[in-house]
Amino acid sequence: MDSILLIGAFLVDSKIEKPLRKEIWISNGRIEGIFDPGHIPSNLSAKIISLENKWIFPGFIDMHVHLREPGQSHKETIETGTKAAAVGGLTAVCAMPNTDPTVDTSEAVRWIIEKANATNCCAVYPAGAITKGLKGKELADFAALKAAGAIAVTDDGKPVLSPDLLRKALVEAKKQNLCVISHCEELSLSQNGCILQSAISEKLKVPGIPREAEVVSVKRDIAIAALVDAPIHIAHVSTKGSVDAIRSAKRSGISVTAETTPHYLTKTVEAVLRYGTNAKMNPPLALIEDQEALFEGLLDGTIDVISTDHAPHTPEEKARSLQEAPFGVVGLETSASVLLSLVHQKRFPLPLLAEKMSLAPAKILNLQRGFFVGAPATFTIMDLFYEWKVNTHQFITKGRNTPFENEVFTGKNVLTLVDGHITYIDTALVSA
Q1: Would the pTM count as exceeding 0.90?
Q2: 309 is known as an active-site residue
Q3: Which residues pair with 418 in a beta bridge?
């Protein structure tokens, strides 16, 4: 593998208050040296990549992605999804198991890893199903899933309805050192709702989903995790009540982590009036008070991670009525830019982006990220001030279902490195 020298960039790390300009020497896929400007050894031989006025982050990790394969390649493939991830600056994704067939066997896990290795665009870590076939009746073989390469277990898209089965899952997952990702939804409350129960649902005359459908389930799952003293990760948090419950649990010493998404941080239920089904996801977009609670949760550590919940669908599916169209939006190619725009708006500081998109998910999933000699040379490199407009016709993902179409963002990924391998480069913005 070629030796590479990255020069002229600033390092962004949650452990560093102010970004520092450094030169990074990479060899054999790892960091071999970090130098102050002007202090590169004279005998160092490497390919030089000039990154003047660019910012290097520890490689971003997306804990919540639907790659749709096997069985739904008309919506996405592992190839298109991982290529889109690389464009967006994502160096690793955790692939959800609600495919066809379900990823509930070691064979299915190995198939995904082999397909991802063939594309070589970003690391793919499969999540196995908690229950066989996502039916909520019988636990999958967690030991076999782990041995095959699964990094987490989840029935994402569905809650584990039986408290006792969730208890058993948490106990077994702890034995296998697997992250349990919980889809929190009380189905008896959400029923056939399609957007938040609100003035907007009344205006559109569609059934609504009360915020309590998420909150009740979050509180239940945290209580079960506390009962067996096992860690749990709460997916796609969208409401103030959930943030409050997670904060309280953490203060009580319960091992709970949580994620939210760029769309919950930037959109409320009113977006449905403009974007229609492209603003329909589960849990639904909520109210401004929920959004403010999410920001507070990010800043005080209640919310650990920002993930996309990338969920591609075909244009034909999203062209259905608000009630009939499937839940979900795409986010791989826009998430980092959406969040950088929030940094520019001073909603949170730049180092927090490194924490929520890289270091925290790496810790939860037992991956390695950081700026130190010997660490994997896995980076997301961004131009913080480049303005661009979202055009879904230019997306690599097969999905076009986004509430960010035609929006202008400040900040763009320009170079993605995974173990020293360039998986994406914007040659118009980077000299290599």
Answers
A1: yes
A2: yes
A3: 421
Which stretches of 214-342 are assigned E, i.e. beta strand? 232-234, 256-260, 305-306
Contacts of 423 (CB under 8 A, 6+ apart): 86, 91, 120, 121, 122, 416, 417
pLDDT band at 44 (very low <50, low <70, confident <90, very high): confident
Name the residue ranges covered by the structural domains of the chain: 60-334
- How many residues does this entry show for the chain? 432
73-98 as b/e, with b when 16 or more CB fall inside 10 Å? Answer: eebbbbbbbbbbbbbbbbbbbbbbbb
Compute the distance between CA of residue 277 and CA of residue 266 in angstroms, rounded to an integer: 17
Query: Domain spanning 60-334: which superfamily?
Result: Metal-dependent hydrolases (3.20.20.140)
Question: What is the Cα–Cα distance from 159 to 166, expressed in whole angstroms?
Answer: 9
Q: What is the rounded average pLDDT for all residues in the chain?
A: 96
Catalytic hit among 155, 156, 304, 309? 309
Element (H, E) at 298: helix 288-300
Q: What percent helix, strand, coil does the chain show, rounded to 5?
A: 35, 25, 45
Once rounded to an integer, what is the mean pLDDT over residues 278-284? 98
Q: What is the spatial distance between Cα 25 and Cα 46, in angstroms, rounded to a whole number?
A: 8
Quick check: 184 and 234 in contact, CB under 8 A? yes
